[in-house]
From TrEMBL:
Belongs to the TolB family. Transmembrane segments: none annotated. This is Tol biopolymer transport system periplasmic protein. It comes from Tolypothrix bouteillei VB521301. SUPFAM superfamilies: Tricorn protease N-terminal domain (SSF69304).
Length: 172
């Protein structure tokens, strides 16, 4: 092997490490004002600028949003409450809508939070089934989640208003 070949090989290998994906390290903030804290951070979901996740840093399992551009937590007034266990949040690309699964008084539901209006709405209040693992489309118009409505786990798709969308059952 010649020296120029070895240099070319090393540069090629190292040059391939600079693009996507990147490893970002957010240090632990003992005060709980950053992405990582002394508590547990679970179920992260990234949508361009924002990361949503659940954490128990305040003593209850709540949803938090982190802005990767400003490196700060985003205030979410009206979203979290002490009588609710939140899990599996998902955020629309622009950060306006957050969908999550929450358990209140022993009953699970899929909730949609609107950051502009600061309103939290149960999309599945009339659905007599267990629900889990919601996700929201990039534009925030559709929410998909798992439901046990037929006695087995199926996927349902709703719009932001909480109305089921007519998705064909058989592939065409």
């Amino acid at each position: 092997m010649t020296k120029p070949f070895i240099i070319f090989a090393v540069v090629s290998l190292l040059g391939g490490c600079v693009g996507y994906p990147r490893l970002l390290n957010y240090p632990v903030d003992p005060g709980g004002r950053s992405l990582n804290s002394l508590g547990s951070e679970l179920n992260p979901q990234v949508s361009k600028r924002y990361v949503v996740f659940t954490t128990d840093r305040r003593g209850s399992q709540d949803v938090y949003m982190f802005d990767r551009l400003t490196n700060n937590l985003v205030d979410l007034p009206g979203l979290n409450s002490f009588d609710t266990i939140a899990s599996h949040p998902s955020v629309a690309e622009n950060g306006r809508y957050i969908v999550l699964c929450a358990n209140r008084q022993g009953r699970s539901g899929i909730f949609l939070y609107d950051r502009e209006t600061r309103q939290l709405r149960n999309l599945t209040a009339n659905l007599q089934a267990e629900v889990r693992n919601p996700t929201i489309s990039a534009d925030g118009s559709r929410i998909a989640f798992e439901s046990s409505v037929n006695g087995q786990w199926d996927i349902l798709v709703y719009n932001r208003s909480g109305q089921p969308l007519n998705i064909p059952q058989e592939p065409r």
